[in-house]
Amino acid sequence: MIYYSLRRLFLLVITLWLLTIFIFLLNYLFPGDPLTNMTGIRAGDEFAYNIARQAYAFDQSIFTQYWHFLEHLLSGNWGQSLVTQRPVFDDILPLLGATLELSILAMLISLVFGVSLGLYAALNLHRPADTIIMGISLSAYSVPVFWLAQLLILLFAVKLGWTPISSQINPLFDIDVVTGSILTDIVLSDVPYRAAAFADALNHLWLPVIVLAVMPLTMLIRITRDAMLDVLQKNYIRAARARGLSEARIMLRHGLPNAMQPVVRQLGLQFSILMSNIIIAEMIFNWPGIGSWLVKSIYERDYPVLQGGLLTLAALILLVNVLVELFHAWHYPQVRKELYAER
Amino acid sequence: MRTLAALLATQCLFILGCSPPSEEIAPLEQGLIYCSEGNPESFNPQLGTSGTTIDATSAQIYDRLIDYDSGQQQFVPALATSWEALDKGLRYRFHLRENVAFQSTPWFTPDRQFNAYDVLFSFNRWLQDEHPYHDVNGGQYPFFVSSGLIHLIDRIERVDDHIVDFHLVRPDSSFLANLATDFAVILSAEYGAELMHLAAPQQIDRQPIGTGPFQFVEFRKDFVIRYTRNEDYWREGPYIEQLVYVITPNANKRMLKLITGECDVIPYPLVDELAKLASDTEIEVTSEVNPNIAFWAFNTEHPPFDQPMVRRALAHAINRPAIIQTIYNGNARLASGVLPETSWAFSEQDQTYPYDPERARQLLAEAGYPDGFSMDIWAMPVQRAYNPNAQRMAELIQSDLARIGVNADIVSYEWNAFRRRLARNEHDSVLIGWVADNADPDNFFRPILSCAAARSGSNRANWCDPEFDKLLVDAISETNQAARKAIYQDIENYVLEKVPLVPIANSLRFQAHRSDIKGVELPPYGGLSFRKARKVAPEDMTAGEPKP
């Protein structure tokens, strides 16, 4: 296991390193001055520009330049935005919080409902319940996120008036942005109307969370169902039945834990899909997260921000995938066996 | 299983969250949400000309020396209590108001009240090249350059703490009008000195301090601008505790958010959806006569638009009445010249070219383009009071031009990038417009067509004609209104002859708000003011109505 973990972590570091090279090269590929693209300091501001030139070693070879770029990157100096002149790194953290809040909630919901519905469908194989669940999940899977979001907004916000259309909270609630995750920020703040603000934030939250949860939910339903059907064929289930164990015990003690193995393996991939959907959802719901920030930076040709957003999103996806793989290998010994046998 | 139950419990919380809280909560009752169409460029209107920046800052954070009352059509005191013209109009003396406090915020506590030094600081910042703040945050002051104010004011002198004298180079009848615009705001000299001491002068336009009704709290780009009430405001208002701008560039979303109650007031509602909005009893649509002009400007430096004959041909080629019908739904008047109907120098005479494709083709042939040519039409990406849909307008013009053999491409960029590229004159022609900052007819010509405007990059026709500039100077040096009117008619005819631009429409400015909001001022000249805005409870609304 240690060998495997080290190998995975090493791979992660290598991938991240390649990513920094790619981002470094982007500065030269974007139109304009590479140093301005990198730091957000324009040549017009001579004093600051010369300091940056020194700091990034722009009078030396490209390898030295990359080395200095990497140093700045690692020390959290990601340049400043060309539009707002604010440091990119300081702006990223609250945006990341807002994005993580959405993605974690969406992932949790899809996990809870996906697994339970998949299980239910597997136990009712070829009965109406199974057909209905599978039918709905397939059609929901086919609806693109941007379309689903518009439909649900039209229904729940405009027609029924149950929920607002956009943003994290009614902006009249003055909640200080600390982590970016609105629920956490409300708990941390000391405003007198915390309960009302919390309710309002939940009211803003549920629609984007549902929109985002639909895609992984439908996938997880199908994966769980197939995995469960697979497990139910296995000899140890038959043996358990033969020993006269209760059906509930068979399912919860023997069926489900084993069926979860392919589900866990899929979580990393589902998270990646969720992250690309979250960019769209954040734009539609005007969510102050890293996805909408990235898209706006593209519109405004704000290169330092664009790089920062790209790096953060890519690193996040890589990290989650590696963690899921490590958990998968740690929790399921048979996976490890497979891995070593391959070698 | 326990975790599963906990998750299900979270789920229930979600569902509980769906029902809106029944009792009213204080911040919701005492605040107002305005869904603005874009980000402000900065928090100092001196630095820009964009209407979005003006609406977000000028009347909220700052005050001016004098205000213009459009109802009474005269200048009224603001930070100056009275003023007089001396030395045959070469010197203006302003008596400043006493006991006016600057805003006190977490980052600045004023030690003194408003006085003559603040006036000097605010004006010298853009007047004097050597002023320590002149080059801070770009050092461009487009309004003051294009209106000519930067060359008109010779110097400003402090007589005592509450009297200042403005020395002018020549008498100018538009001087007071320019001082009453949203650009001539008063900043705090003390705050400037403190920031200089802290070596952070650029903060002056990012964390602004003024004397206005609202003080700045925070700005999150693309999301919100938050203001709170200035407790020590020197005149009436404000009545709301909190003013929040939610940045919503999409016009459709703005309208939906008004319907769901997420916005209290929205600018530029979609014209074709207006009827639907107006029938809703919760929403009121107001319109104001707005002194504006939508026009199609040619880059007169780019061939073939350097030939007046080509420009005249294109002016004949487009069907303007059809544009008015399609784009404005009849909510605008066909422009009969550059000046709108509301100006005192306006005349009934039609100073435009009629729709005549035959004549257009003939003129093109005479100019040496019998087979036409290719050109770009730049269309604004945003809605403005004068033009709710520039893209669609460009399409109409494109099809009109195809009829005379001219092949047009439509070009657009993000709004701030669009304006930057326009200032660099990268366009062939552009659909844009102008909203007057004051009631003086001069404001319709000098900021958009003079040589000074061409130099500062706000002359969309990139047109510099010394003869035209001479007429403008003649007009402002004249004090007799009838004589001035005659000169402005000559100017109109000169524009008609040279066609640097084709006037299209004068439109109304629309705004929609929830019916429990009262007192949002939409003055004809310049930006929006929330000073007298308030939220009335439903019971008050019925109580306020006269009983039979």
TrEMBL record, chain A:
Signal peptide: none
Keyword Transport in annotation: yes
GO CC entries: plasma membrane
Pfam family, one: BPD_transp_1
Cell location: Cell membrane
Annotated InterPro entries: BPD_transp_1_N, MetI-like, MetI-like_sf
PROSITE patterns named in the record: ABC_TM1
Keywords: Cell membrane, Membrane, Transmembrane, Transmembrane helix, Transport
Gene3D superfamilies attached to this UniProt entry: MetI-like
Transmembrane segments: 9-30, 102-123, 135-158, 205-224, 267-285, 305-327
Gene Ontology molecular function terms on file: dipeptide transmembrane transporter activity
Main localization, broad class: membrane
Topology term for the membrane: Multi-pass membrane protein
Entry keyword annotation includes Ligase: no
Domain of life of the source: Bacteria
Location of the ABC transmembrane type-1 domain: 96-328
Family classification: Belongs to the binding-protein-dependent transport system permease family. OppBC subfamily.
Protein name: Peptide ABC transporter permease
TrEMBL record, chain B:
Keyword Cytoplasm: no
Keywords assigned by UniProt, alphabetized: Signal
Gene Ontology MF term list: peptide transmembrane transporter activity
Domain Solute-binding protein family: 75-453
Keyword Cell membrane: no
Classification via PROSITE patterns: PROKAR_LIPOPROTEIN
Cellular component annotations (GO), alphabetically ordered: ATP-binding cassette (ABC) transporter complex; outer membrane-bounded periplasmic space
Family stated for the protein in its record: Belongs to the bacterial solute-binding protein 5 family.
Protein name: Peptide ABC transporter substrate-binding protein
